[in-house]
Structure formats: C-alpha cells, structure tokens
Design a protein that fits this description.
The chain is mostly helical and about 400 residues long. It has four domains: about 70 residues, lambda repressor-like DNA-binding domains (434 Repressor (Amino-terminal Domain)), CATH 1.10.260.40; about 120 residues, no CATH class; about 120 residues, Serine Threonine Protein Phosphatase 5, Tetratricopeptide repeat (Alpha Horseshoe), CATH 1.25.40; about 80 residues, no CATH class. Helix content is about 75%, strand content about 0%. The protein is built from 20 helices and two strands. A two-stranded antiparallel sheet has the order 1-2. The longest helix is centred in the middle third of the chain and has 22 residues. The mean pLDDT is about 90.
Amino acid sequence: MPADARQVGQRIAATRQSRRMTQADLARAAFVSLAMVKAIERGARTPSDATLDAIAGALGVDPSRLATGHVGTERRVHAALPELSAVLASYDVPLGPPVRTAAELRHDVEQAAAWRLAAQYGRIAQHVPALLADTLQYLHASHAPDVAQLVVSAARTADAVAYKYGAHDLSARLIDVMRWAADQADDPLLVSTSAYVRTETFFAAQAHEAGLLALEAAVDAAPSPDDDRGAAARGALHMRAAVIAGRAGNADAADTHLAEAQQFGDRVREDIYQGTAFGPDSVRIHEVSVAVSLGGDHVGRALEAAENWKPSEDLPAERRSGFYIELARAQLWSGRADDAFEALKIARSVAPQHTREHPWAKQDAATLRRLKRADAESLTSFAEWIEAI
C-alpha cells in the first residue's frame, strides 16, 4: 500500500479517536460509507479531495492536517464555476436526454441538498454542475412539475458555493433559474423558497431596504399557513426579513418580523421545510443574527438570546456554525475576546468550510490577533487557517 495513503489513514484514525468517535460516527457525519472509512484508515484507499474535505469537516480540522498536497476547497470551487456558468448559459435550451434515470436524479439531488446543509462545498463543486445540467434536461424532456422541483433544489445547492465563494453574479443567475423553475413546479411554497434565497442578491449588493420590500411582498404572496409547510414558509420569510431589516438599520421592522417568525416557529417542530431549516431553534439563532445586524448598540440583546443556550446538533451544520460566528462578533464587541475566540473555534469544528469563507469570521479573527498578541501561537494558527493574516 502507498506510504502516503497509510499515513493519511493513520492521521484520520488518530484524530477520530481523539474526538471519541467510532468509525460509524465518522461515516455518518462525513456522508460516506462505513466501508470507505475503514478502507481509508487502514491505508487501502486514498480519499479523493472531496472525501477528505468531508472527513476533515466531520472531524473539525483542516484537510491539510490529514494530508499534505491536498487541493483545497476554494481551488476546486473556483475550478467548477466556469462549468456552472456554461450550464446556465443554456438552461432554457433542450440539449438532449439526461444521463441519469429519474430515480438516480432524485437520489442525487437529495444527496446534494444534504451536502449543502452540512456545508460540504468541495463535494458540491465536484458534482453539482453535471447534476444541474441533468435536472434541466430532464425538465425539458418531461415538463413535469415534480421535476421542476428538482431543478429548484439543484440550483439552490449550486448557489451555495457560488454565493459563499464570492461569485455573486453567478449566484444571481442561479437564483433566476430557481425562480424560473419554481413557476413551473405547481407549488406556491417553492416560489416562497426562491424569494427566501433571492435575498442573497440584496445582501451582496447591500441593497437592504430593497431586499426588505421584496421579502415583505413575498410574505404577502405566500400561501395561507394552514399546515406546517405553509407556516414554516411564512416563518422563514419573516426570519429572513428580520435580518435584512437589521442590516438596513430598521429596528422596528426587524422586531416586527422577528415576532412574526417566533409565532410561526412555535407552531411547528424544528425541521427542514422546502430545503430551509425552520422552527423554534432556528428563530432563536436569528435573534442573535438580528441583534448583531443592528450593530454594537444591540450587543446585550444578542448575548441575552444566546445565554445558557446552544443550538442542537440536529440543526444543519451551516446554521450552527453561523450562530457561533455571530455570537463571536457580539462577544468581541462586548470586550469578551477569549469567549469570542472560543466561539470561532466551535464554528470551525462544526463547519470548517463555512467558517473559513465567512467574512465576519475572517474580520474577527484578524481583530483578535491584533488585540491578543500575547496568545500568539493559537490565535496566529487560527488566523492563518482562515486567511485573516
């Protein structure tokens, strides 16, 4: 067996054991098979870059700690963007039959959505361009509403990497495809989902007031919240509106939308609705997000919302990581630098790829490094990992 494969396997096994994880635990967290984990740890298989990213994410470490010469997620994401752009250029042109069967397509779209929620951006970059192309061709061939739903999901997954890695024009085009497909899906809730995701374009352009108006129009147009899915759709839109109102500096609107989100959150159990996590815990996380969005004068409100509470591990990794990143910012503003650094480290352990690409995490790591030079070794290591210095 190759020496490097054996060494990688040994590092993975040692890190897993230090986390008190079984091989089955690691397989579940990394979205790989137990047989693959066993083969990698004994050196019989060399993990691909995407698999290494997934395992590193599950273990809460950077992939470079497990394998030298690893091709980083950022490079693989940017390498995939031209292929995504080419798919979008012909989204409304029937190019031929899809490669996958209907059953394969549904399975792969569901798997990709799980990668999005787990912040597995390297895996998304590797697989989603071809997946999106296949869903589009299947829609052209069938014109079926349920296939349009697959296009919406695949485009949303692709948008996760485009938006997180700064390709905002490409992100906007993907959102346009989501909206185009949602109109064909015969499901008004998908239109609400597209409006929720469209908010990214307003965040990217810092057009917060316009984004708030768009979300309020989406709330008015949303289906009646008679069941859990309808209540969650309305609640998620209010949750998103509260955050963008905070970014706009409109505290009254933020409070109003957050109160509405809380009412809907109390009506449903925490779950994934139309690809979005919603429920009481998600709303509480957004209480912190809203307070941080409103600025330093509201730091006490953010800390109060997070006091003696942490998000359940059942929540998507990206959402939990975002909570700790925003909590770290509130702690830093309140002079609690040590707590802020601990929160950033938790964010990294939950979703390394998400944390590394989050602009606030980078900014706050750089600030902590300037403030606490006496703790140079650990802070410098973190700041170098997140590329803040």
